[in-house]
Amino acid sequence: MKLNSMNKIIKHTQPIRGMKDIPPLQYDLFQRVVDSASKIARRYCFENFATPILEYSSVFDRTLGETSDVVNKEMYSFVDRSGQGVTLRPELTAGIMRAVLSEGLIQNLPLKFFSYGPLFRYDRPQAGRQRQFHQVNFEIIGEESYSVDVEAIKIGYDIVKDLAISDITIEINSLGCADSRVIYQQKLVEYFARYESELSEDSKLRLYKNPMRIFDSKDDRDKILASGAPRISAFYTKLASSRFEKILLMLNELSVPYQVNELLVRGLDYYCHTAFEYSTNAIGAQTAIGGGGRYDGLARIMGSKSDIPSIGLALGIERIMLLLKDQESYNKAHLGIFPISELEINASYLIASKLRDLDIPINLYEKGKLGKRIERAISKGCNYAAFLGENELIRNEFKLKNLITGEECMLSYDDLLKTIREQFAC
Ligand code: AMP
């Protein structure tokens, strides 16, 4: 019995397929994306907001649309111990809208929320596509104005610029208002029904439920048929087309480059009017690094008495990390304390503790040959070393060495403190 359970433990030394550890160097890149997005979020006066990773399944399956790939094939759903159907969130918007409604935040509209965190989709893993991945996410809830759509598009553009990523294309489309969509959907059904037998199995299912989703198909034959389909712009109401024109004009004025792509409908059913996507050719098959759109009707689907005009955008952190070529790491400079023998370990810990209380970053290097310890410390970013031996302890002194220049000097505790505080600006 015991041997069997040991075998099980040894077998599972890898993370679950499609889920990845983020070791320190990778995490530096991850953090750069989050820091950049947080900085831009502050620039646009967003507030931070976090929702649970696990929600009742209805939060997603009722809202994302029954024809969406996410709901059909990709949800990590299970029944918990109390018999509730729950789902690991596949996206952030529905959870945030659930929270706005359940927390009574609807009284305080408009709201601007920034979030980031892990998401889960049970898709076939490949480069740039994981089963657990992360997004930075922005929601502007309770704002109808076209200028807010421009703001959303610009936020993603600002982050990409801030991270010095080039070769990004911004594609934009208007899905029209609810009225124009109804007529358009009928025309699409008529068009695609003529080729029903040629459609992929997935698109056959989409045909009568949400034919616009056929534009999302990766199937080659579907793509050819989609290219000949009627275009939504021919069905815009006056309101929808003037709204879209104003957005494009304002983007021009702000010098945000974009391409209109009438086949861009995005994967989820709840979008209306503006839909947009940021893409690149630099990371292989997975070209989208982020996207977003307007979702005025989502709140009503979730039980609100009326629509809450809203727009959001999300960028995939892992895909952006693939575009951050330089592995520039975060500031890891610190003071290393090196007890020369076991006798100085206690004193070293006490000094480290005092200095840490003053916000000075400290690491102790206490085991092994001194030369090896110094090498290891340098590889961890240590730039100052304080050596504490028997003599230093008696005289209450330290040998301080600048590991970059090689300079060294003997200092009293007070002088050490003064020098180090100057170096670490604290
Ligand atoms: P979506 O929520 O599907 O619009 O995705 C927004 C962004 O999240 C995409 O453009 C990708 O950058 C990222 N993303 C979506 N799905 C995955 C995935 N399975 N693995 C890694 N990144 C993803």
| Overall average residue pLDDT | 90
Number of helices: 16
Strand count: 16
- Main sheet: which strands, in order across? 1-5-6-11-10-9-7-8
Radius of gyration: 28 Å
**N→C terminal distance:** 57 Å
Bound molecules: adenosine monophosphate
Please give the largest β-sheet. 8 strands, mixed
Low-confidence stretches: none
Structural class determined from secondary elements: alpha+beta
* Portion in beta strands: 15-25%
Helical fraction: 25-40%
* Structural shape: elongated
Which descriptors apply to this entry?
alpha+beta, 426 residues, 16 helices, binds adenosine monophosphate, five-stranded mixed sheet, eight-stranded mixed sheet
Short description:
This protein is an alpha+beta fold and 426 residues long. It contains 16 helices and 16 strands.
Question: What does this protein structure show overall?
Answer:
- With 426 residues, the protein is of the alpha+beta class.
- It contains 16 helices and 16 strands.
- It has helices at residues 2-11, 24-43, 58-61, 69-74, 93-102, 146-162, 178-193, 201-209, 220-227, 238-253, 298-301, 317-323, 345-357, 370-379, 390-395, 413-423, and strands at 47-48, 54-56, 76-79, 85-88, 111-120, 132-141, 169-174, 259-260, 272-279, 288-294, 310-316, 334-339, 362-364, 382-388, 397-402, 408-412.
- An 8-stranded mixed β-sheet has the order 1-5-6-11-10-9-7-8, with helices on both faces. The protein has a 5-stranded mixed β-sheet with strand order 13-12-14-15-16, sandwiched between helices. A 3-stranded antiparallel β-sheet has the order 2-4-3.
- A hairpin with an 8-residue loop joins β9 and β10 (288-294).
- It starts with a helix and ends with a helix.
- The structure holds adenosine monophosphate.
